[in-house]
Design brief:
heterodimer; A: 77 residues; alpha+beta; SH3 type barrels; 6-stranded antiparallel β-sheet; 17% helix; B: 641 residues; alpha/beta; Rossmann fold; 3 domains; 6-stranded mixed β-sheet; two-stranded antiparallel sheet; 28 helices
Chain lengths: 77, 641
């Protein structure tokens, strides 16, 4: 089932299927190693809808909720 | 010959550079510490060479100004060898940049840094295989300890003599076909003479990189042609052309990493994971951040207080001796008193607080706590209308406003840079922190000093809200995307060296200004000019309820913020500040000095980064904020005391 990255529970994995947004956001995320097809592990949520912390290709990245909600993912069961 | 260190943020370029140069570049465990490049001359095997430490870039696509600066330098044609520094524990992501660097067709050596970290993660890298796949020498290093640097430079010299460039791995065939056609078109049909290697240029054009698209001669036919190629890629892959290229590059990097490395054991679970569990926790994280900064605060205060009192006594003794040996009121008395004031002000008031502050700050930076603080604070940054990376200039601002203003180059939008630059100058820098400690904490108490820091954060937040309403910036601005690097146990030597580098900056640049300033004030007192300045500023000092004689010190504070404090004792004629100023006056004075007009160096930085109008606006804005707050402090303390 497709959902957005910010909906994934902590310690669950998800595969990126699409990134909604222009070239700018795609580029920024791509530089962090986040492209369609990559697997992301949700590590934790920040307080009060603060940023989320994920792990991708061995590095930890903090993402604002706004950006996370533009990353379409499929949860890995 | 010219060697450039290129690599992604936080891979250890500056650490490596410092091994070559002695300590010249500020390093920290925080992505984006270097925003402009530093150069040094060095000798390798008898060759004299210039070594350049470039800002970290995740890719060579035009993003923020810091990245553009790094890329333009690499493309300038002056670089003879690139040392591509990569974090061996993040092989896939790092190789994406390596692949782009290879396209520059400059001789290159791959420096596999942070080998200790990658071993801890259980990653085993086949160095020879990687070197064979990329066609360039690969040298494993641990820059923090200096391990592997000698072999690295031997390879640099060898590759320089051979002038051999690496192998550019191929994308999928259909993509390669289009790249080849575009190169052919550019060369034959448009006779394009570009100093940029043609493959690199073609790929960037297909990626729609605005910088390269703009450098093309105005040629309708060419842009139509490029659009057609992009459409072709989009049609066959179902995603925009830039995404096709970035996915291809990503796939290549994954493929290379798969061929040349394997995970031999799962990452060792170490204490750092446990620490992060608490340090970034949504409740305890905030408790910890409060404890960390409170401990930091007390560390500075207890050391400073311990040193300030005896040094002040010594200073007073010497001052009295001066009074004995010179006729009071004579020129020689004023001159020698001014010199003594400047020297002892630095020793007794500034250094006792500055040194522990800088050591503590360096330690927090090197350990890697600051990105965690940025993660925790982001939600509040949103509340004040600021997003994402803006937190970096703020954190740097606690060290010095000048690098903080320069660090706004990591922000993409000019409007955003404008607001953040102004706000960053309002953060108390090391100099102002010293004032807060030496005056408020020392004479009134540590809690009052903490109050000023808290007030400052509140005011910066409100100012942020006001400025972002006055100067709205595009909603398209991205939220936080920040790498959270692993904690590092920095070699203490590095941290101390860095602190020394910053203390030295005070001694070499600021201290002479303090001494000259003190002498000038002494001369002005002697000549009676000081009275006129104080008279001109008397409306302000009256409004704030301050002694008229502090007027001049506020003017001098513009040169260096510490100056207004050192001169305060001079202007008042005593170091027993409490005998001539009430606690309220000390509070009002400190609040005013904390917020008013940035120092000259910062104004110059603002001028450069956000223009003349921006700098002027910053001056007016901070001055009004300072007057309002200082007046409010006067009223508030008048009521409660």
């Amino acid at each position: 089932m497709l959902t957005t990255l910010d909906q994934i529970y902590e310690n669950k994995k998800a595969t990126v299927t699409d990134i909604q947004g222009g070239q700018g956001i795609r580029q920024r995320l791509g530089q962090m190693g986040i492209h369609p097809g990559d697997t992301i592990t949700m590590l934790r949520y920040g307080a009060l809808r603060g940023p989320i912390l994920i792990e991708v290709h061995g590095s930890q990245v903090a993402l604002g909720r706004g950006i996370a909600s533009r990353i379409i993912v499929e949860e890995v069961q | 010959m010219r060697i450039a260190l290129a690599g992604q943020p936080n891979c250890g370029k500056s650490t490596l550079f410092n091994h070559i140069a002695g300590y010249k570049a500020i390093t920290s465990n925080f992505p984006g510490t270097t925003v402009k490049y530093t150069e040094t001359k060095t000798h390798i095997n008898g060759h004299t060479c210039t070594c350049v430490d470039l800002p970290g870039t995740y890719s060579l696509t035009s993003g923020d100004p810091a990245e553009v600066e790094a890329r333009n330098h690499l493309l300038s044609g002056e670089v003879d060898v690139i040392i591509n520094v990569i974090d061996a524990s993040l092989l896939i992501r790092s190789l994406e940049l390596t692949l782009q660097l290879l396209e520059l067709e400059v001789p290159m050596v791959l420096c596999l840094n942070m080998m200790d970290e990658s071993q801890r993660k259980g990653i085993q890298i086949d160095i020879e295989k990687l070197s064979k796949l990329l066609g360039i020498p690969v040298v494993p290093t641990i820059a923090t300890t200096g391990k592997g640097l000698k072999p690295l430079f031997m390879e640099v010299v060898r590759i320089l003599e051979e002038k051999k460039t690496g192998i550019i791995p191929h994308f999928s065939r259909d993509v390669e076909d289009i790249i080849r056609q575009l190169i052919l078109d550019l060369r034959t049909e448009f006779k394009l003479q570009h100093h940029v290697p043609s493959r690199f240029l073609a790929v960037k054009l297909l990626e729609n990189d605005s910088f390269f698209v703009d450098t093309l001669p105005d040629h309708d036919d060419m842009s139509v042609r490029i659009k057609r190629y992009q459409a072709k890629l989009e049609e066959s892959h179902g995603v925009p052309a830039d995404e096709v290229i970035s996915s291809e590059r990503h796939a290549l990097a994954m493929n290379l990493s798969e061929k040349a490395s394997e995970v031999v054991h799962p990452p060792q679970r170490d204490i750092r994971i446990v620490i992060d569990h608490w340090a970034m926790h949504r409740v305890f994280g905030y408790v910890i951040i409060a404890v960390v900064f409170y401990a930091f605060f007390n560390f500075i205060f207890s050391i400073g207080e311990y040193l300030e009192a005896p040094l002040m006594n010594l200073f007073n003794q010497w001052m009295n001796q001066l009074k004995g040996s010179f006729r009071e009121g004579s020129l020689s008395f004023f001159l020698s008193a001014g010199v003594l004031q400047g020297i002892m002000g630095g020793v007794a008031i500034v250094l006792p607080y500055l040194v522990p502050f800088l050591i503590g700050l360096s330690l927090l930076e090197d350990v890697g706590y600051l990105p965690r603080a940025a993660f925790l604070m982001d939600v509040f940054m949103h509340r004040i209308g600021l997003h994402g990376k803006a937190v970096i200039p703020f954190i740097l601002g606690y060290g010095c406003s000048v690098p903080a203003v320069m660090a706004t180059r990591i922000l993409e939008f000019p409007q955003h840079r404008f607001i953040v630059s102004i706000l960053a100058t309002m953060i108390p820098c090391a100099a102002r922190t010293t004032i807060i400690f030496a005056l408020v904490a020392f004479f009134i108490g540590p809690n009052a000093a903490l109050g000023i820091f808290a007030l400052n954060i509140l005011v910066v937040a409100i100012s942020g809200k006001i400025l972002s309403l006055l100067f709205p910036y595009p909603e398209a601005s991205l939220g936080l995307i920040l790498e959270i690097p692993a904690y590092q146990l920095p070699p203490l030597r590095n941290t101390l060296k860095k602190s020394w580098y910053r203390v030295r900056e005070f001694i070499v640049i600021a201290w002479p200004i303090l001494i000259i300033g003190s002498v000038l004030l002494a001369l002005m007192e002697y000549g009676g000019i000081e009275k006129y300045i104080n008279w001109i500023l008397s409306p302000l000092t009256h409004l704030l309820g301050l002694p008229v004689s502090v007027g001049t010190t506020l003017i001098f504070g513009l040169l260096r913020k510490e100056l207004s404090m050192i001169m305060l004792t001079q202007a008042l004629g005593t170091t027993q500040v409490l005998t001539v100023m009430t606690k309220t006056q000390i509070m009002v004075f400190t609040v005013f000095v904390t917020f008013y007009i940035p120092c000259l160096a910062t104004i110059a930085a603002l001028w450069k980064e956000i223009g003349k109008k921006g700098a002027l606006l910053a001056i007016l804005f901070t001055l009004s904020v300072a007057i309002i707050l200082a007046f409010a402090t006067r009223v508030f303390f008048g009521i409660i005391l």
